[in-house]
Amino acid sequence: MNRPYCFIFPEFNSFLKIGCDAAVLNIQNLTTCFRTPNGITRAVDNVNLSINEGQVVGIVGESGCGKSVLALSILSLLPKPPAFIASGKIMFKDHDLLELSSNDMRRLRGNEISMIFQEPMSALNPVFTVGNQLMEVFRIHGNPGVSALQSAIDMLARVGVPAPERRVKEYPYQLSGGMRQRVMIAMALASRPALLLADEPTTALDVSIQAQILELMAELKEELGTAILLITHDLGVVAEVTRRVAVMYTGRIMEEASTLDLFDHPLHPYTQGLMTSIPRADASFETEALNEISGMVPGLAELPPGCHFEPRCPEAIDICRAKAPCLQVVDSGHKVACWRRVANG
Description:
globular; eight-stranded mixed beta sheet; 12 strands
């Protein structure tokens, strides 16, 4: 299949190097639920996913498909109640994160596991300066006083913040949205984590700063073997920086494969729809209409009894309406949850 866009970051080939065999994160049969007035809904439904040391794994899908809930489940940052983990394990190195105490999770958060949140307005504290918030990370890791201040300035410079000596004295409201995003990225990378959860890390950034941030993440991956879980809507970034990709829909992984295999040979109709919804670099916008996936992602309380994608699927058959398919390996580690693909081998 032809790729629906041009690759925009050829300089980041280091992202595609194979990671070590040691699994930093191993999610096993994870189900995350929410109690609602309409009953219990599954925002993450029996998800299995593994990330090795030095590996970048991408998660893609439309809004409302459970990608961010999965990341928050890993960090135990879900609102409890109404959220709760119904089943499964989240193994970080040799520890099940679901079995750790609140104090132990706090020690891991921001230290060995960091997260770049999607919304910088709510992630930064409005009553403290940017410098105070960033210096706190360095102080926790043993860099007191002037050393922490200089480290904060240097990190802001590395993520493309202009005049970092002045910016460390400013409050979040004094910065643009893109600038706040860069500050948040600096805070996540400051501890040099073993696992980085990046939820739309470059959404508010222009192309040049986006490239700078991805390069910084690549350096962290190479220097420390950091494992990265990248959540994004940008399939161009996914194609360039990930080794494997999981496609989520209504809390379930519908397809998982190596990045090259997924882009060259997508199997699930949902994945195919995502691929063809991206404007082609060589397309004539006067004559070629942009493809779209019909319908919308259903609410978690309104899921169909069979395959969740069936109401929007152009290839649905009778069994799709009656029974949900399981994620199965069909070829060389390529996994798909689709009755037609499994039936055809």
